[in-house]
Design a protein that fits this description.
Helix content is 41%, strand content 19%. It has eleven helices and 13 strands. The strands form four sheets. A five-stranded mixed β-sheet has the order 4-3-5-13-6. Strands 7, 10, 11 and 12 form a four-stranded antiparallel β-sheet that branches.
Amino acid sequence: MDITLDQIQSLEAITAEGSFSAAARALNKARTAVSYDIQKLETALGILLFDRSGHRAVLTSEGRGILEEGRLLLARANGLETLAARYREGWEPRMQVVIDGILPMDPIMKVLKTLADEGVPTQITTRIEFLAGVQTRFEREGAEIMLVKDFHKSSGLSAVPLKRQESLLLAAPGHPLIRDAGGKRWSKADLREHIQLTVQDSSNRKDSLDAYLFGGNRVYYLSDFFTKRKALMMELGFGWMPYHMVEEELKTGELCEVPYSGESRYDFTPFLVYPTERPPGRTGNRFLELLKEYFPEGIVPPSL
């Protein structure tokens, strides 16, 4: 079927302007050219768009239906032109971001909302992974950006540090490590006697990046940190949690810091990582700019 946008534009202009002559003037075309557009369109579709029996040509019911669909085509064509212009301005067509599930999601969602509110034309997709699974998906799918706690560094990756975050070793107040502490600080051997809760590495790599397992015989691997927090509050075991996910529970006493003779806290610096050979474009740079603005300093107050 040989249908052109010029033909649809002529159909729309005739309806909007009220006549073939007025449409020709609006389109800066000869009247014969507008008439030819309509004849070609009617031939291609095999229907009459105008009733020409009266003094003036009037849209048929079929013509009205074609006009409605044609207006959608014109709008999509205009949208394509606008989108192409945005791409010429340096906005990426697509951007995939792989996010480490230990990181605070609120600022990341705020960044995505701001980009949407600003009308950024890039199609952005996000994926949540854990531990080595972040880098595995990032590399496997050729993603543009990963936001990650730990990763295997290489010359092919460039990294921008974000604000520091902190994790704490926690248990519920009714758990023996809290309930029976009585001022005692537990050793690593003591901790190994209890169930440790951790989040499952979402990769199949053997060189997992989880360096904070105590090596006990009972380790429960959970799907995410929200499930882990609930398990901690149910006194199922003890484990590490990022401060930003348990700030309220620490204030209310629903979770407590385990008195461990080693370090019961550790801080880490997350990174925004991208392939050195594919640096961020306009969208990626705006993403990073907003992320630096919104990302919180997740360090536990000394008074806790």
